[in-house]
Amino acid sequence: MARILFLAHRYPYPPNKGDRIRAFHIAEHLLKRHEVALGFTVTPGDGEPDMAWARKFAAAYCGRISTADRLLRTGIAAVTGGALSVAAFRHGGLSRWVARYAAEQRPDLVYVFSSAMAQYVPQGLRVIMDFVDVDSEKWRQYGEMQPASRAWFYRMEAARLLAFDRAQAARAAASIFVSEDEKRIFDKLSPETAAKHLAIANGVDVAFFDPAKVQPCANAQPTIVFVGMMDYWPNIDAVAWFAKDILPLVRRRHANARFQIVGARPTPAVAALASPSRIEVTGAVDDVRPYVAGADVVVAPLRIARGIQNKVLEGMAMARPMVTTAGALEGINAERGRDLLTGETPAEIADAVVSILDKRAPDNLGDAARAFVLNRHEWRANLRKLDELIARVVGT
């Protein structure tokens, strides 16, 4: 058993969002084997954390970051040359707590979830850096989709964040990525640390995402469902693209087809997509599973995507026919045409959706999807690599 300090940029509970899902399952896995302390930040919009889960840990500290603090720290970073993505998660109280914990408890290992949290780790400690995704590439992609008047800002942040991440990878005993694709990208961006990079894929709670345990929503119309946090820009872009460019093509064949956008915190742009009988924006729901189980098709038309998309794995685990872009399928080695369908253009995605609604797609598409998840994306099996890594790093 090792003494581990787990640092996360967001409270990992409840596990209802991509980064929280991964952090939650890794933390729970570590708690079964080690003594674990938890340090995390709460930023504007996160809501008040349910600290009951935090009582599982040997010690815990919540650094609450206000909007004023965030604006001040990112403003300073903008002027001084720091990465805004790092400054946004800076909190003096958490920094002091980590320093005190490290001095008094002398942890065997610090598990850093998201590179922004590496700023808290005192020198001289063993570190495993879980980058999850190559976030600097996300900023670069954002810049490619912005007008020239704003693109410079995204390019600047991409360069600054990459410099910070390379420094953290050099310091760490090992750096983890959510997929082999993300690992290969960082291998090229940080070749001097490539020997210490490895991929540990996300899993799915297949007992929870089990269609046999869910009563599906009853839908009178053919229903196409997207699930995701609706204040996240890649999700906003995806549903807007589907609603404006893809759904009209689907409705040429199925005039009563309905698009259901399921997810918390819809922005005004997302809310404005709603229309009677054609597009529903649900906002936050208690449980996404009935919506997924009731869908005729689940879609993930992401034009910007990094790492493994939990929404795709969860839809597949629910044995629903899936249609995705290639980007949304990164790190998920499902067989196209057997486990799900893909498309890149509006016409290709619409044709894939229509083929499912027309019953032209394979009848067992959903069953094959769940079988794939059961075989390749079960958390316990995927995290064995983490157990081996920790044993190697701490020398036990």
Report a brief summary of the structure.
The protein is of the alpha/beta class and 396 residues long. It is 42% helix and 16% strand.
Please, could you describe this protein's structure?
This protein starts with a strand and ends with a helix. Helix 11 links the parallel strand 11 and strand 12 (322-324). With 396 residues, it is an alpha/beta fold. The chain has 15 helices and 13 strands. The mean pLDDT is 94. The strands form 2 sheets. It has a 7-stranded parallel sheet with strand order 3-2-1-4-5-6-7, with helices on both faces. The chain is globular. The chain has 2 domains: 3-203 and 378-394, Glycogen Phosphorylase B (Rossmann fold); 211-376, Rossmann fold (3-Layer(aba) Sandwich), CATH 3.40.50.2000. Helix 5 (135-144) runs antiparallel to helix 6 (148-171) and helix 11 (310-317) crosses helix 13. It has helices at 18-31, 67-80, 84-87, 92-105, 135-144, 148-171, 180-189, 233-253, 268-271, 289-293, 310-317, 346-357, 365-376, 379-382, 384-394, and strands at residues 3-8, 35-42, 59-64, 109-113, 127-132, 174-177, 197-199, 223-227, 258-262, 279-283, 297-300, 322-324, 341-342.
